[in-house]
Write a structure and sequence with these properties.
This is CMD domain protein. This protein is mostly helical and 165 residues long. 71% of the residues lie in helices and 0% in strands. It is built from nine helices and no strands.
Amino acid sequence: MPNPFSTFSSLSAQSRSGEMKAALADRAKIMQLCDASGQAVVMPAACGNLPHALRCAIAIRIARANGCAELATIYAPLLATLDATPDVAAIADGAADADARGAAILSYVDTVTLTPARASRAHIDALLGAGLTDSDVVSLAELVACINFQARVLAGVRLVEETFA
């Protein structure tokens, strides 16, 4: 299984253009920090009320919503190792969640990912009302922000490669 937390560090090795390899090599520390951030939000030591499998499924969902199949493909083998329930695995594929807790989480994830201007205090209140703690809400916000950022970085790298290859 490829290490999903070495994706950004290895981008320059995967690059087809010499210019892109050089640009990414100059930013190696930033790429390592991108990998470390992904690991910290998907596989933290303390999960709170957001288990690793759920975090990973959300990461895949966000990647797919951003049209970043590459990132979704990187996280998919990790999800397979986490003994996700069928309901959690379905979240990665865009399924809705039947219970109020899951619905609040996915409403927040999808809104911030797809229409961030529509995110509001009501989303936070729904998360808290569904039993998430303040710490869980912060962790979820970090996860959503990080994976959206990763998807955008990968999209930008690929666009530059296509443009100048």
